[in-house]
Every structure is written in structure tokens, then in C-alpha cells.
Request: fold
Amino acid sequence: MVVISDIIVQGVQMLLVLLLAPLLTGYVRKIKARLLRRQGASVFQPYRDLLRLLRKEVVLAENASWLFRVTPYITFAAIWVAAALVPTFATGLLFNWTADLIAIVALLGSARFFLALAGMDVGTSFGGIGSSREVMIAALAEPAMLLIVFCLALVAGSTQLSTVSHLLASSYVGLRVSLGMALVALFMVAIAENARIPVDNPATHLELTMVHEAMILEYSGRHLAMIELGAFLKLLLYVSLIACVFFPWQIALYGSGALSYTIGAGAYIVKLALAGFLLALFETATAKMRVFRVPQFLGVAFMLGLLGTLLLFVSRSF
Amino acid sequence: MSAVALQMVCVAGLLGLAVLAIVLSRSKVATTIIYAATLAVSAIALIGAARSLLGGAGATALVLPVGLPWLGAHFRLDALASFFLIIINLGGASASLYGLGYGHHDPAPHRVLPFFPAFLAGLNLVVLADDAFSYLLCWEFMSLASWALVMAHHREPGNAKAGYVYLVMASFGTLALLLAFGLLAGPAGDYGFAAIRAAQHTPSSATLVLILMLLGAGSKAGLVPLHVWLPLAHPAAPSHASALMSGVMTKVAIYGFIRVMFDLLGQPNWPASAIVLFLGSITAVMGILYALMEKDLKRLLAYSTIENIGIVFVSLGLAMAFQANGLKAAAALAFTAALFHALNHSFFKSLLFFGAGAVLSATGERNMDKLGGLIHRMPLTSFAVLVGCVAISALPPFNGFVSEWLIFQAVLQSPELPQWALKIMVPAVGAMLALAAALAAACFVKTYGVTFLGRPRHAAAAGAHEVDRFSLAAMFILAALCLLAGILPGLAIDALAPVATQMLGSRMPAQASQPWLSIVPIAESRSSYNGLLVMVFITLAASLAVYVIHRLASHALRRGPAWGCGFSDATPAAQYSSVSFAQPIRRVFGTLVFHARDHVTMPLPGDLRPARLRIELHDLVWSRMYAPIADTVGFLSGRLNRLQFLTIRRYLSLVFATLVTLLLVLAIWS
Reply:
């Protein structure tokens, strides 16, 4: 019985993230538009975009190989599994124990690995420029992310997200310098990983400014839909990660009944709305930076992560 | 027959095959016979070693009445040796299987065939040796046999230099090892490992031994800055021999390091671990940066070996630090991670070298910038190589991720360390490892993307064809092992427990008893990872997505030309090449590490001269360290050369002066 209810709760979580992900993106776009005094498209536009893409035919480049066709599914699956590992409204879910934060980072790494390969597959300069810049950004963002993971793991004594979240939800931890640094660093990494301003601009199709969009330029139809959904999920994943680690208020504990699960879900949605608003505010307030300033931006995140970790190595009470 | 005797019989068999290869050398069937027989012998040795490791039988020893008259030659098979014999013979068996097909492309088989089994015999003997004399002798034998393999195609440009640099570095390494064993044997001069183990070693001699071992074993393994020979020599050999040199011989060097530092010296001290951690982390990052800048497929793989050796040394350094402070569980974790990574590296590096060999035999090219599009022409090879690339980039659910995960878990144990120097150093080392892992992923996106994807950049790549069955079988077996070790890591960790117990007196918790085949580094409450479930979930999620999409979405599919911004007939040369792919990373790291400069010559509009881009990269280790040494040696030998042409009168006065000086020294001394 316990296993069945676990599976149901886990299934609800996986469906929830899948259903909420496009909404979050649509919401961020809407807020951005409103901040720029534009009307903006409906918050449900991403769903419509996905459905429209699904109905369209796929145009494959003549040179595309099988890798190009399976990559959208691999990428989507890896991101979805990673998103399922992050506690959203409740900790201690079934999947939470199969892998830890390091594995989540690596799963996102797998998704990017295949996308970057797919960018090289067709053999145009666009795919190449996108892939090469994407791996450059990742080569800096991933170590920064791992240092943040170290930081959290040293505070919580575990790399298991459920444990981290559970512990930080209790009053035992309190405010810490190292956690503050980790939060800022994680925010910067999230900006870079999700191809947001100031690192990348998902809204343009101008060749010189785009990174992620250049890499997936050759995709169309259902393949593009999978990749877009993966990107939506990734944004949701990072927001959930920040929420569950740094703001784990009202998150339901394992097996605590339907009521607290509902409260947890409500709190989660409020957190998403707040995070989406802050992201939109940040994005409208900054301009995109040159590609070769990104290393400096991520270098700051890397250094913050390293400093936080060092502080914790020196003393557990920082 | 005892386990060690079985191994020695296998070694004798390999040596016999080397002789047979000389006899058969130029006949047509020689290739098939030698590789098939080597495969059989390696398989027997592999089974023997695996039985001895898993069976839990104690160490078995054997003394042969050869070698130094009063010493004999001691051989011993214990858990550590069994583990490394598994790596060697698995590598040997897969390389022989590969050689069954690949060997037929060899223009001069008689240059390779005798040395291949001899090299394998040498590798086996080093691990089995139980006294310093046999160890050094076998080490030299291994080095010389591999040197012969490096020189197999000695007329190709660059190979002569590779052989020369290799010989110099190998002699230097052996010299360091000789001195290390001399110190270990002490004034009593007992060269048996049992006696060395029993003796007491002073801290100063232990430190000297560490430095000498880092020079000796480190130069063979490819620690920065002793790595310079490796990217020259490893690619020069035929590809299956390259796989053995990169995937296996570097492991034998690691074996030597472990044997001396953990077994013979006894308890390690923490400053030693700091040195190892420092060198290991520098090696990891430098190795992968070199690889990123490289466009020769096999040289790139050799540089990536340097990175992996760095990772192994980092985790050995962690094990030494924990062991020195009596943190038994953490030491076992770091040590097991090191061994596991060494095993994993032997799987995927052999696989990738086989893949490079397949590309080489199909196209005749090692320069990635002339390849491309091979995924269409060599589908099976490209699939196997893709598995290797994913595994070496430490991505789940493959094996590379598991060992790196274990190392990160070990790093997280280190706030327990009492020394401030280590407390501050280990997070930085962890950051370097994370950087190396991320750069490795970038490097293998480049490798695979440029070589196998895109459009062919050259006629050779356009006319490529799939390789033979034996080569494919060898690659697919290794690819399967990469996946198996990734999804069932608990079994591998449990198999390594006897080695950790023997070396450290502690082991990781038994993983087979964990629910759902998860692995846990210290205790369940801390962290866990389950490769099998991760793979099942990814497969399920992907299948679900495919099922739903194919039910709901449009099936229409059309092939069309790629979008070229209105300039659709771009030549394949306009694709991203390995050099342009690495350009962003070269700008970020290269200016610092390689003093990289891009020189662009852009003619004015209307001028018909082509625009040119020249990239200037400096290997600082070579120019700052080796070049001055070589210059000094050259200068001194030029000066001393005059001594050859002295008159008899001058010679006599020289002898007289030396005699007087010596007598004076003696007089003052006493």
C-alpha cells in the first residue's frame, strides 16, 4: 500500500512539473511584457505553441542522422527525470532516494551533451557556434554548480535533496554566510543554464547574440516541441531547486497526509509565482552581455561557491 | 596449481608467443594465430585473476631460481595485484580481439606481432613482482616492449622523436624508481618486498621515496609536468597498442605508486597527501585543456588519459590524507573510488582508442578537421564510440559518472581532516575536479561532433566504410562493460573491498545488501545513487515521450536542405572544426595556460588576398622546463666534447689533478 501511495504522489509530482513548466515560462513572458508596458501574449501561449508545433510536419536537414532524431527525446527524458528528483511540494518522494544533487547536475549535463552534439550534426556553422558556446558556458557553470552542491552538502551533511530540504526547513540551520553565497551563486548559474538575459536571450533569432537558439536552429515540428518543453522544465527545475533548498517553507514532509500535501502544493505555486516575477524583473532591468563577458559572470558564481565551501571547511558554523 | 603459478604460466605463454611471432613473422597467417593465441592466454589470465580477487583466497607466492644469485625472483599474487591483473588482461584480451581484425591493416606486421604479447607479458610481470630487483627488471622490459611498439612505424613523421622522448623519459623514470627502491631497501639491502614492508622507514626517507615515486611512477602515468612524452608516444603505436599503453600501462604505474605508498611504506603522512592532491588536480585540469586544444584524434585521447590519471591521483591523495588521520571509512571510500576510476578508464579509453583506430583504418586520417559525417558511413563504430564519449564525460547512467560521484563524496568527507592546510586545499581540489569534469564533457562533444557528425570535410571521410567484425566486437564488449559498471556499480565496489581491506584495513559498506542495488558511500542517510533506477527512469520517460508524441503528433516528415541564412551551398569546410569549436574555451583559459594568441590577417575590401587566421599556442611546460634542460645538456656536452681531443700530456695532467684533488678531499674529510 505504502509503495502504491508513494508511486501516486511521485506520479502527481512528475505530472505537476510537466503541466506547470510551460505556465511558468508563459507567466515570466507576460510579466516581462507588462513591465515593458506591452500587452504581451496570454500566459497560456506556451501550451498553444507546443500544440501547434506538434501538429506541424518535421523538416529534417538532408544530412541529419539518427542522433539528431533521438536527441529531443533523450534530452527531454533526462531533464524530466532530473526534475522528478527535485522535491517540489513534498520531500522524501520515491525518486528522491535514487539519486542526489550531483546526479541531477550530471543528468542536466547529459541533456546538454546530446543537444550540443545535435547542434553539430547537420553540419552548418550555426549549430557549431551554438554548441561551442553552449559547452563553454556549461564548462564554467557546471563546476560553479558543483561547488554550490558542496556548500549545501556540508551544511546538511548529505547530497540528498530530500535530506537537505528537510534539514533546512527545520530551524536548526538558521542564517549563514555560506548559504547566502550559495544562493547568489545558484541564481547566477540558473540564469546561465536557462539561457536567460544577461547570458543569452531566448527571444531573439539574431545570429550573433544567440547561443542556445543557434544550437537548436535546425529543429522543427514535434522535435522542437520536445526541446522547448525540456527547456521549460529546466527553468522550473531550477526555480524548484532554489525554492526547496533555500525557501523550504510549508514543504510537506514524507507521508504527512493529503492536507499537508495540498498546503505544500499551494505554497509551491506561490513560490513559483514569486520567483517568476523576480526573474522577469531582473531580466527587464539588465541588458544582455557580450559572450566573452559570460566567463567573468560565471567566474563570480564559481568564486562565490568556492568561498562558501571554504568557509564551511574552515568552520561548520558559517 | 596455485593462482600465482597460473599467472606465471600465462606470462610464459605470452613470452612463447612473442618468440613464435618472430618465427612466423612474415607469413600471412601470423597475425591471426598470434592475436587469437594472445586472446586465449589473456582470457585465461583474466579468469585466474578474477577468481583470485573474488574468491577471497589469500596471497600466494612463488620464488623462481633466476635473477640475482642470492635473491631469486619473487612473485606474489594478492588482492591488489589481482585487481590490476584484471585491468591488464581485460585490456589485453580486448586489444587482441581488436587486433584480429585491425592487425590485417598493418603494413608491417612483423614489427608489431612479437612485441605485442611481450608487452602484455611485461605488464603482467610488473604487477606480479615481489622484490625490487624483479620489479625494476620487469618494468624495464615493459618499457622497452612498448618502446618497440611506439617505433613500429618508425618512418612516419614524428614517430622517431616520439620514440626518443619516450626512451629518455622512461630511463629517467626507472632511475627514480631505482633510487626509491634503494632507499626502501635501506642499508641492509634486502630487496624483497616482504622485508621492505617489515622494516621501519624514517619520515625523511619516506618523503624522499614519495618524491622519487612521483617522478618514477608519475612519469609513466603522465603526471604534469612529466607528461610530455605521453601524447607523442601513445598515438604513435598501432591503435590497439595505443589502447594498451593509455588504458593499461598507465594503470600499472598507478599500481606501482599504490604498492609503494600504501603497502611498502606503511602509514602515509599528511604532507605527502597534499603533494599528491596538488599534482593530481593540476594534472586533471591541464590534461583536459591540452586535449581541448588538440585536433589529432589519438593525441587528444592521450591528453585525456592525463586528465584521468590526475583524477585517480587526486582520489589516491584523498585516501592518503584520510588514512594518515585515521579516518578509516573515508579512506576506504577515496581508495575504492581511485581503483574504480582506474578500472573505468581502462574500459572507455581502450574503447575510444579502438574507435580512433577504426576511423584511422577506414579513412587514413587522424586529423579531426579532415573528418566528419562518419555516423552515416560507420554507424556501428560511431554508436560504440558515442557510448565511450558519454562514459568518459562522466554522464549518468554510465560508469565514469559513478567513480567521479564517489570521488566527490570523498571530497565531502574532508572537513573531518584536522590539518588546516588540507582543509583549505581540498575544496580547491574539488573545484578543480569539477572543472576538469565539465571540460571533459566539452572536449568529447568536440571530439564526437567534429569526427562523426556533420558533413565530411575531406574525400577520405566521404569514402569511409564500416570496419570488420572483430574490431566491432571488441568495441561493443567494452561499451557494454561501460554500461554495466555504470548501472551495477555496487557489485564492482564490493569486488574492490578485498583490495581496500588489504591496503587500508577498512572497506566501504557492503553494497550488495543495499535495497534496489543503490550505492552508498558511508551510510544510507548521507547520500545514495542508483544507476540502474536512473537508467530505467530515463528509458521509461523517453519511451513514454516517444509513445505519446507518436500517438498525438503529426507524423509528417520532410527532408530538406539545412538552413544556411540564404547562402545554402556552403562548403563543408564552413562547418565548425575542432579548432573553431575550442575557440571560446581557448579564449577563456588558453591565454593564461598556453599563452594563446590569435593572429588575424584581414585584407582590406577589394583586396583579393585570402584572410588568414593563425593560432599561436605555447606548451609552457615544454618551453619553460624541458627546453632549458635540453639546452643545458646540449651546452654542457658541447663544452665537454673538447675533452675528446686532448693531447696525451693534457690527459696525464688531468689525471694527476684529479688524483691530487681526491687525495685532498680525503685528507680534509678525515
